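User: Could you check the structure of this?
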Amino acid sequence: MLFVFSGVFCFAQSDGRQFIGINLLQLPTSTLNLNYSKEIHPYLTGHIDVGYTRDYVSAHEKDLLGKYLTDHNFQYGYNRHREQSGEYLKLGTYFNARRTYIQTSYFRLGLFITNSIVYEDYLIGDDVRALHTLYIVGVSGSCGYELQISSRFKVSLDYQISSSIFKNDLSTNECFVPGMGLSGKGRNLYPMVLLNIKYELK
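Assistant: Sure, the predicted structure tokens are below.
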């Protein structure tokens, strides 16, 4: 846990470059997000990511990447759902494979704690409606590559895998958790591909 939060705790002690960005691949899941990162050291970048999923049930047919990454049956998982929405806060650190700030394109590893709130509205039986709110804490790891595309813009592509730390009570084993992704059949694993474009703040 110390490694996860080391980047966040060092934000105030660094004069490194700062960026604000958005993950484009979350848009098809009806998720709006915004992230902030700060270079603390050439090999260390602190990262904060916040987002809100409006209604994944109405958007799940458009989540082509989620369907590809997981083994699931959407008819089983979502045919009784009326709505699933929520928000998340992700805190963590990227460990960069570079020695100096001069190297602006590099491979990296990420480690995060993801805090998600999920709101579910679904049917039990034929006509019994259930509403509940769940708080899910997960740990996420990622690997990817960051590329400088102009003097102020960067783009990164990462593969992330998450797992909830505690047993959750989601209504189906095939469920989308904001900030973590879509799980497969009966698995506590949530894969996600992140395509982040970010702008340097001055």
